[in-house]
Predict the structure.
Amino acid sequence: MQPLLDIRNLSVRFGAAPAVDGVSFTVAEGETLALVGESGCGKTLTALSVLRLTPPAAVVEAESIALHRRELTRLSEREMRQVRGKEVGVVFQDPLTALNPVWPVGEQVAEGLRLHEGLGRRAAWERTVEALREVGIADPRRRASEYPHQLSGGMRQRAMIAAALACRPPLLIADEPTTALDVTLQAQIIDLLLRLREERRLSILLITHDLGVVAELAHRVAVLYAGQVVESAGVAALFRRPLHPYTRALLSAVPRVDGQAGRRLATIEGAVPDPTRYPSGCRFAPRCPHALEPCREPQELREWEAGHWVRCGRAGEWTT
Amino acid sequence: MDRRSFLAALAAPAAALLPGCGHGAQSAGTLRLAYETDFKSLDPAQCFDASTLQVMRILYGGLLDCDDDLKLVPWLAAEMPEVSADRLSYTFTIRQGVRFANGRELTADDFVYAIERIFEPATKSVGTTFLRNLRGAEPFGEARQRDAEEQGTGRRERLAEPRRLEGVRALDRCTLRIELEKPDLAFLWLLTLPYTYPVPREEVERHGEVFSRNPCGTGPFLLDEWQRGQRLGFGRNPMFQGPARPGLDRIEMLIGYDLMTQTMMFERGELDLLNIPLPDLVRLSRDPRWSPQVRSLLLQETDFLSMNCEMEPFTDPRVRQAVSYAVNRERIVQFTSGAGIPAQGLVPPGVFGHDPGRKGYGYDPGRAKRMLQEAGYPDGFAVELWYPTDVPHWGQICQVAQQDLKKVGIRANLKQVAESIFNEATARRRTVAFSMYGWTEDYPDASDFLGTLCDGSKIAEEECTNASFYNNEDVNELLHRAAVATDEAARADLYRRAEDLILEDAPVCVLIHPKEYRMCQPRVKGFTLHPMWFVRYENLWLERA
Amino acid sequence: MIVRLLRRLLWAALTLLGTSLIVFLIAHAVPADPIKAFAGPHADKATQEALRRELHLDDPLATQYLRFLGNALRGDLGRSNVTREPVIEAILARFPATLALSLGGLLIWLVVSIPLGVLTAKHRDKPIDRVTLVLATVTVSVPTFWLGRMLQFELAYRLGWFPVAGLFSWTSLILPSVTLGIVGVGYYARLVHSNMLDVLNQDYIRAARARGLSEPVVLFKHGLRNACLPVLTVLGMDMAGLLGGVVFTESVFALPGLGALSLQAVLNLDVPMIMGTVLFAALLVVTANLVVDCVYRLVDPRIKGA
């Protein structure tokens, strides 16, 4: 089956510094792919590149960015605008800042409907109310006329999801959709996304650094470090047998409910390298406890077992 | 009249609007001109500056007028008056058939009313100074003041005596007799001034305080529009009786336009008349388009540096004379674009009492330095030279004088002072030592110059017109004798001798007699400048395109 | 809400009172005598005394001030010492010209600054931004008087495209409005620019683009709507300042507005008129303050409910 979204060799540079360096992945229909990594690893930029929403200073190059086999890189800006909102919806991290404070929430949903589906004001408003109801907002007609600051945090996030999905795009890009929320709300939003995915056969490109969310929502995971994909696998396989030292370190850094209280959290020493000064070999080597001489060579992404790719020459040397 | 109040009103009359230029619709027969500031009052009793005077003359009329040659001619009087041998009594016959704008016929009583009301404090007239010499003026004035005070206290008693002014009486409907306390050969000139223009009593009483905004006179025009601070409109007075009908249908005066703007408007055809500002004089008089329309007039005015004889270092006449030798008057004329002639004396040419053969101080800086040395100032001295803000080019004149004075060691610091403050300070005793001053005639007689400026007996602590605070007993005596002299030749001689003494004492350093330049649009005809009235609107007409 | 309004009104009243007191004291501190200005140099003592009595200039200062205040509260601002016309009438008669001029200036500000501010924010650091920055600095520094004169000289006098001066038709308002406009445009364009820069960095702009909205819609519907809010406050105060009388522009173009009236009043030492025009201007500023406050509450939904 052809993937819905197919990204090949995507690079995003700021001047000479490659923030995203040769990243490739696919998202199938109905599939949820999580892009995981620390802040600054380039995951948000990768997602924004799909829709050409990167900052003006960013130079985006890609062999291919294809949606439904349609090559997005060759589209004009006008054609691109027709993709945004209609073929791809985006949910941003902080719903308070991602919703315009001076327009009612409903308007921010309806404008997309009027634009992409050519609906008149009244029809668009009706659909808006429906959309808000579908995302679980109570009393949607009243809420549609309210302003973002009048809604609670959870309702705002739901509203943003409604706005992103109003025109029923097949792909949703969700950039840290739960990061700004507390645990209870997180759970609600995750449930919502699961439900919508189920109802509409929605594909989701999920950007997050929260492995818990990954576990609940994603089918497959791609781990990014220093602008490269360092490991990519099915979610179960990744959690069961993480291969890349970075992935392993990330997983062990997650505090566990059953962990002993009083024990220090494991951290990864060092910091993400500056994009202008990547090491010539393995970019994780300076922080890797297992780094050896061969790690000075640039590492390739290799399929270690079916569907499980890793960028590390010593991957097979650990078993748990 | 002093230069500044005179100038304050002299923003240029400007002319009509070219038809079809779209900048305000005007009919072809309307003359349009502009002023910087609005008129304060159109009540003849309250008129004291030159531009209001020009307007008074087209709204009202007086017993006598003065022609282009500065000769007195009858106006509302049927003929020149009968004068008694002792020069104390003048009998006028009033012209028949003259009507006020409200239709009523003019009688001798109207003159009596007009003159008597000058002395009423409620009229707020400045004419009392001029009419002091009328017989019984002093007691009459005092009585009216007492009346005014008692009105203020609410006590309504009989009017104080004397109730009538003895010196002005209507012998019958058309005969007016005026009597003076002392003879004054210049008296008839006063009758050309607006203080004696007749006003209809019923209109004054009807309007009360706002009579100043609702003039009603015998002149060829009447005021039909006055938007304060914006414009005045004059139409023809249908009641006007000749001799000649005015050529203009309407006159429109716009208010609030500074001189630079007026010049631009004039050149664009938006105004009909312009008082040419000095900076534009050379350019405009050389421009072939405009030079045929330029008219010039040597003003009967003297600009001078006034030195306070009661303040150091000007207490010493040698210092004052040194100043007079130090200043190069030719250069000053040059710096004002030739708009003037060097002054030889205080009384300007054309004014009775002027001595055409007089030779004043020449330019002699060497002598000036020697005199300063004699007086005990071998290194000169420093002094502040005050000048007011309202005359634009006086700053330049002062600078030229400053340079001349510097050459002989007198370091003059120029100090420009706001007009109102300047007036007050220079009129106060022992306040200002050195200032630039100017005096324009109220009427062309030496008494208006020498008598006002140099009479030591008139020195007062405040509001003194003798700005040099000059006091010479001999001069005082000559001036007093001249004021009441009955023989013209003798009078001229007395003034000449007085001026000789004054110039010798040099309380003032005379500079120039300035010239004024005006011009009109080509379509304005009959435009000439009169020495006292400048523009006479009744003589103008517009050539229809 | 009512309490807040009342409190604001009280402050406004106190401001006006303070202003009137200060102006009164200053006007009386000037050493020149208004009587002389009115009556002329020849006026004798009796005439001056009569005038002084009539204008109540011989009363002690405090009495004069209190009398003024009492009358003012009844809507009577006295009569001009010079023209004897009621001050309030003079002010109201001259207000339309100033109003027309101010609106003209405002129109130019808005029409030019807003697109310019939006454009330069969108194309930051590109030539249009740099040029606008230089122009803005220049226009803000240019003296109104000089600019008005230059425009008058070049466009009205030399080229004859406009009337030189006076208020005869709407064409008379073009050059004065342009003068006012130019002086303010630079400032407002940069204000809109910097506000827009802030706004364009916000997430909701990115979100709007992500919905496929066209750039103009993003800039104006989403961006400008936010960027304009702070501009509103400044605009309100500026308008109030304009409405109180634009002295230089009105003088150069001889427009019969409040500015010219105030100028004449000062030159004539016409104390009632000076008081009247200053108080009127103060009233406008205070009112503008209140209005802007209310409008801001209406326009910014975040404050409405709070």
User: Anything to note?
Assistant: The two ends of chain B are 40 Å apart (CA to CA). Chain B has 16 helices and 20 strands. Chain B touches chain C through 54 residues (CB under 8 Å).
